[in-house]
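Journal club prep — side note

Before the paper discussion, L.F. wants everyone to see what a predicted structure for a comparable chain looks like in token form. Sequence:
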Amino acid sequence: MPDSFFSLDLSLLQWFNSSNSVYFDSLVPILTNGLTWIPLYIALLYLVVKNNETMAQIGLIVGAALVCIILAGGVDDFIVKPMVAKVRPCNDPAVKLQLNLIAGTLDKSFSFFSAHAANTFSLAVFLSLLVRDRLFSVTMVLWALLNCWTRLYLGVHYPSDVLVGLLYGCVVGVIVYIAFYKLFYRFNIKFQYISSQYTASGYAKVDIDVVVSTLVLTLAIVILGAFCSITI
């Protein structure tokens, strides 16, 4: 890696990295934990089940979402990271002393590229293309960006790792949606909804509100929980 590029990458990482805030040092590890977002995943499943008529349709969508995870995080974790073998900044002796690391921030896997970024953006893009609602799309992209930010705050990825993961995730999301679209409408009639209550692809706005509300409520609980943990 050229020295100038590495210097820029490191400078950006230091800008995003922990500022020794007791509150954020408590909050971010919770936000980056996949278990935190289980309520969101349940709400997304509810959205799919509620707005599709058959188990075949539901299974196809769920299967496509799983393919996103396999092609994004799976390919990254089991193929790309071992091949590139780029050391995480938090584990690099020459770098970690220049960062503010939270105690216990350890990850033995490699840095390039970010599976968090790839996974969340592949899902965000696929589901946004599926649902076709502006509020839903913005919500999913902001959720994915939040996950990207946590990786930089913790110092477990360089910005370039996150950017590549983000872009790769977007590509995966688009490719999976194209394959899904061709397969789905091969066996189902294509409807174009024109209604203030439904999206163009037939998803009820009220069910989308459930997903958005679940995400907001989850964030509120996590934010409040992190605050309580440092005041008790």
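L.F.'s comment for the group: The mean pLDDT is 90. Keep this in mind when we get to the figures.
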